[in-house]
Amino acid sequence: MSSDLDPLLKRLSLANTRRVWRDLVRRAETEEWSYEQLLQTIFSEEIAHRRGTRLMRAVRAAELPFLRTVEEFDFSYQSTLRLTTIGSLLSPDFVTEGNSVILFGKTGRGKTHLAISLAYRAMQNGFDALFANCAELIDDLSCASREGRLREALARYVKPHVLVVDEVGYLAYGDDAANVLFHVVNERHIKKRAMVFTTNKHPKRWGPVLHDDDLAEAIVDRILDRGRLLKLDGPSIRTKHLAEDNALDDDQDETEALRVSGKPGSQFPEPAPARSAFPSSRIALPFPRAARTRAERDATRERPGRGEARTGREPSHPNPARRQNRGTGRGVEGPTPSCDGGRRGRPETDRSIAAEREARAAMRPPRPDARALS
């Protein structure tokens, strides 16, 4: 029987039924289903599969930057906006009647999230949607207008059941921004196509943004003809993870401390360098520097001959001829020895003498204080 049924299901393009009908038949036999219950289950499975497949295709065609649902939107951050307020926007009548909505508020209030949620709900209800950034939409249509194919480019933004135009007024547009945007809004208004706009500027201020006050007023008039203006307030959802209250309290405490002390705070405060636990200081030795020994002094000193030191005669020289020419400077090689045996002017000799004096001063007993004796 399966060989005869599969070609028929393929001919009818019932791909999901071809995969599940055997399991459903075995289940019907086990649970003793009726023929009507079996057929109802088979058709329900096929419809659910086709709905899921169509929704996936619609989401890809909508070019959503990310997917969000209404259930994920946190209404606790809004003071006036509630789920019941946007209940009519979630029904199929919002699309079939060609209604529109402008979501107005500061940045980070969830306008894009809510707009994508409305488009996704419309796709769940069986409609098509398209998400477009306002700057990209205007640039695309402006380029098409200059090339003479504006009518062809408009079809992409007029055909979907729901059009989401995000970030109106965020960026600067060309001089023909109001002209091309008016074509989109007017065509969709005539064909009763739903529109969703997000903006951080009130619709009354769209004139300077679009470079034409009259066309901007006409655009807003057509949007709100069958539409609503919803304001989103409260804190920014993007920065809700920051402890802003604690940061403000810390700033107030610091400001109060500066005010009481009277010292102006630094414009660019920098952390003070950490002080060392061991301050650098010179440690005085408990004993004087040791004097050089007599052997060290004798090693660095050239002592003259015994007879020459007492009589003051010149030291003996191995060459008498060279000694005779000492006064004229002829025939003399090297420095002439002095009368003190060559000790004067030598740095090692001076250091040895200074070390000997220090040693004597260290060995000398301290003098008594005259005031103590009196």
What is shown here, in short?
Among the domains are: 2-62, no CATH class; 70-232, Rossmann fold.
Description:
This protein is α/β, with parallel strands linked by helices and 374 residues long. Among the domains are: 61 residues, no CATH class; 163 residues, Rossmann fold. The chain has a 5-stranded parallel beta sheet with strand order 2-3-4-1-5, with helices on both faces. The protein is elongated, with a radius of gyration of 51 Å.
Bin the helical content: 40-55%
- Structural Rg: 51 Å
Secondary-structure element order, N to C: HHHHEHEHHEHEHHEHHHHHH
What is the CATH C-level name of one domain? Alpha Beta
Treating each run of at least 4 consecutive H or I residues as one helix, how many helices? Answer: 16
> What is the level-2 CATH architecture name of one domain?
3-Layer(aba) Sandwich
Query: How are strands sequenced across the largest beta sheet?
Result: 2-3-4-1-5
| Unreliably modeled segments | 276-290, 305-315, 320-343
Mean pLDDT rating:
79
The biggest sheet amounts to: 5 strands, parallel
Oligomer: single chain
CATH homologous superfamily descriptor of one domain: P-loop containing nucleotide triphosphate hydrolases
CATH fold group of one domain: Rossmann fold
Proportion of residues in β-strands? 5-15%
* SS-based class: alpha/beta
Count the strands?
A: 5
Overall form:
elongated
Q: What gap, in angstroms, lies between the N and C termini?
A: 140 Å
